[in-house]
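User: I'm putting together notes for a lab meeting next week and I want to include a structural view of one of the chains we've been expressing. I don't have a solved structure, so I'd like a prediction I can at least talk through. The sequence is below, exactly as it appears in our construct file.
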Amino acid sequence: MLSILARQFRRILLTVLVGGLLGATLVRLGPGFGVDERELDNRLNAQSLQAIRSERAAENNVAVFYWHYLAGLAHGDLGFSRSLNRPVAELFKERLPLTLVSLLYGVLGGIAFGLGLALLTVAWRGPASNLVPSLVSGLCLAVPAAVIALIFLWMGAGGRWAIALVVFPHVYRYAKNLLVSAYQSPHVLAAEAKGLSNLRVLVAHVMFPAAPQLAALAGISVSLAFGASIPIEVVSDTPGIGQLAWRAALERDLPLLVNITILIALLTLAVNTLADLALASRRAAS
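Assistant: Thanks for the context. Below is the predicted structure for the 286-residue chain, given as structure tokens.
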């Protein structure tokens, strides 16, 4: 188990470092980087314009910027957001708890709804058992997250449940295919032939063997939920990390975008690591 933990830690560290560098590179090479709307003010003289341009001079070289960023990160300094004129650490301290709560509602709600509907579809086994759930999941999959947020805003519901509705169709489709495949396994067919109850077959012979694969859904769901939180928080005017990412992208705020990229990578990898550890523990126990 210690070797697995060490290997996972190295994987997380390498992925986060490379992900942050690639994110900084994409922002630096993106159109509009280095352009400041303050330069459009005709009242500014040459010295003022030069002062504005010099503020972003350190960000022109991605390698130099990322080296200084890592040096500051080692001392707990996440950098300074010029678009909001505040330290990034303060922005994260204010907004991260709200987004984490929304992600918790969205991921748990999406998994519960998707898995419950998948279980109902598989257990019913009627001629039309797959029709209505497929239509509902297909509709939720086709409607953009921003439109779902508008509907929930019009209904007076919280945006966190809109995140659950975005996550649900992905969970439903994967869980349904997994459960259908499990029910067609020889040991499940043998258990049904022996006359075991449907509940015992479901718990002992379907859900328990498929638990690691279902646990892996958590990592996917976190990534989906965070991606959906950006338009949902913008539409519902929720002051979370998603709204912060939107503003940072509009302003080409490099320090802020790099920290958000690393945060997303850390959340996703942490959940995936927990799923991998659960799978390793199950294999060791068996």
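A couple of points you could mention at the meeting. The radius of gyration is 24 Å. The chain has one domain: 2-285.

User: Perfect, that's what I needed.
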